[in-house]
Structure formats: structure tokens, C-alpha cells
Write a structure and sequence with these properties.
Length: 271
């Protein structure tokens, strides 16, 4: 294993550059932190390029197994100082392990309506915390994936990946321009349910068991634009009391997803 303590090491410089979207896009790489999440990524079939681990990880069985798996997969393993891990993750107390993985997205035509499948489409989501939380919630309810429409925050930024708590490795992501999305939607045979503050339908009155659902959520500041709203079969609203104008995007998505998947999510019998 190669040991690196200098921040000027060219490999470390390249990994640090992944904090910037333009480098992530150029290299098609992203970072994930923590032993469990790196193992999850392996298990889910993601391709590792580089594994960094702290010197303190030497002799730790799980870390050494991960290192051996990385080498077997053709990746590079570096043992690094805490200073390097802090700089790479921009954290004072970094995790012991960081993995650099290849990005993966699906093309829009891989999204096909089937059974009672649920997909979520997000219009220009801007906040990495919202996107990560939505990916985690989509995972929790068993949604098939998330379509990012228009200029969205990067699903592979360290902030988004952190907020997913590992669901980034479980939930397929599609990126599409509004034009490509609307063209694809014309051939989509499922129901497209939009959420809108002017929606006239109570979100609890729709029978979501009938066929596939594409849930369309609007941008945090502006809500759904007219072209996306008019492409929906139904515009639903979540009733509110009190002074808030609207719900937070991730909260509204969670409320909707649990209603749409209500019939499919019985509590397990643990007796
Ligand atoms: N000012 C924005 C507007 O006028 O739509 C508020 C957007 S809200 C923060 C973000 C998104 O969450 C909305 O576009 C919608 O998709 C969803 N949302 C939030 N509260 C909702 C509610 N009560 N009913 C339906 N959708 C809601």
C-alpha cells in the first residue's frame, strides 16, 4: 500500500478537486465517506477507483478486506494521514475511510412504466440537503428512481451524497432537460401526478394503486412552471393549516411518497 501524507501529492490534489462539480463532471467520479457506505457501494456494484484510509485503519479487518477488494477490482489504495483525510472531505473529524467511485446515471428511455412503479421527477431542485433527503426517502418507500429535470444541484456532490446516507447507491438517477423530459412524458403510459400550491385535488383522494405513478415536484423557490404543470394528469395539494405558505420540498415529497406507497408498505410482523 502506498502511504501519502502530503497535500501536494498529485493523486490527492485530483481527489480534492472532486469538491468542484466541473471536475466531478469531467472525471465522472465522486466521493463517499465511511466504511459502511463504501462497503454498501461495493455490494451495489459501483466501481471503485481509489480507496483512502487513515493509518489508524491498519490492522482493522474490515478495512483491510476493503483494501484487498479494491485492489482486486483494479482500484488504487492509499494509506493517508488524518490531515489528508480532513482536506479531502473538508471535515475536522473525518471518517477513517473514503472511496472514490465512478458516477452512474440512467438514460431517460430506461424509465418504463410498469405495474405500480413509482418514479419521482424533480424540477430544478437546488438544495443538496433536499435532494439527498429525497433520494433517501425514495429508497425507503421502494420508489424505482429519481429523474432530475433541468438545472438541478449535483446528485454526486459530497453534501448530497452525505444526506442520502447511502441511498445514492440504491436509487437510480436520470438527468434530463425539460424539453427531453416533456418529449419522453408524451410516450409515458403511466399517470403523472404534479404537486402544486394551486392544485384542486386533495392528495389523499387519488387511488395510487392503479398503475404506475410519476410524481412531479416543483422547484423550492418557484414551484412547478406552467409547461411541467400542464403535462401532469392531476395537480394535487397537501392541505395546510397555520402560517406557512408551503411545505419544504423534501417534506412534501416524503408526504406524497408515503401516500402513494401506502398500500405497498405494511409494517413487518416482528412477533
Ligand atoms: N413558492 C413556491 C411555490 O409557489 O410553489 C413554493 C415551492 S415549495 C417550497 C416546493 C415544492 O414542494 C412545490 O413546488 C410543490 O411541488 C411541493 N409542495 C410544497 N408544499 C405543498 C403543498 N402544500 N401542496 C402541494 N405541493 C406542495
Amino acid at each position: 500500500m502506498k502511504e501519502v501524507t502530503s497535500l501536494t501529492n498529485p493523486i490527492i490534489k485530483d481527489i480534492r478537486a472532486l469538491a468542484l462539480k466541473k471536475f466531478r463532471d469531467r472525471e465522472h467520479l465522486f466521493m463517499t465517506e465511511g466504511l459502511k457506505l463504501v462497503i454498501d457501494a461495493f455490494e451495489a456494484g459501483w466501481t471503485i477507483r481509489t480507496l483512502l484510509y487513515a493509518k489508524a485503519g491498519r490492522g482493522n479487518d474490515a478495512v483491510e478486506r476493503l483494501a484487498a477488494r479494491t485492489v482486486a477490482a483494479g482500484g488504487l489504495v492509499l494509506v493517508v494521514s488524518e490531515k489528508v483525510l480532513s482536506a479531502v472531505t473538508r471535515r475536522d473529524n473525518p471518517q477513517m475511510v473514503v472511496g472514490v467511485f465512478e458516477q452512474k446515471t440512467l438514460p431517460l428511455d430506461a424509465v418504463r412504466p410498469a405495474d405500480a412503479d413509482v418514479w419521482v421527477a424533480l424540477d430544478r431542485v437546488r438544495d443538496p440537503g433536499n435532494l439527498g433527503t429525497i433520494l433517501r426517502t425514495a429508497d425507503a418507500v421502494g420508489a424505482k428512481g429519481v429523474i432530475l429535470v433541468g438545472d438541478c444541484t449535483d446528485s454526486f456532490s459530497i453534501e448530497t451524497v452525505r444526506a442520502t446516507m447511502g441511498s445514492i447507491f440504491a436509487v437510480p438517477i436520470v438527468r434530463a432537460s425539460p424539453e427531453a423530459f416533456l418529449a419522453w412524458r408524451r410516450g409515458y403510459a403511466g399517470r403523472m401526478v404534479g404537486t402544486h400550491l394551486e392544485g384542486s385535488v386533495d392528495y389523499r383522494t387519488v387511488d395510487y394503486r392503479k398503475g404506475p405513478t410519476l410524481l412531479m415536484m416543483g422547484n423550492e423557490q418557484q414551484g412547478l412552471p406552467e409547461n411541467l404543470a400542464s403535462a401532469c394528469d392531476t395537480l394535487v395539494r397537501i392541505p395546510q393549516a397555520g402560517r406557512a405558505d408551503s411545505l419544504n420540498l423534501a417534506v412534501a415529497t416524503g408526504v406524497m411518497l408515503y401516500e402513494i406507497r401506502r398500500h405497498a408498505l405494511p409494517l413487518e410482523d416482528r412477533s
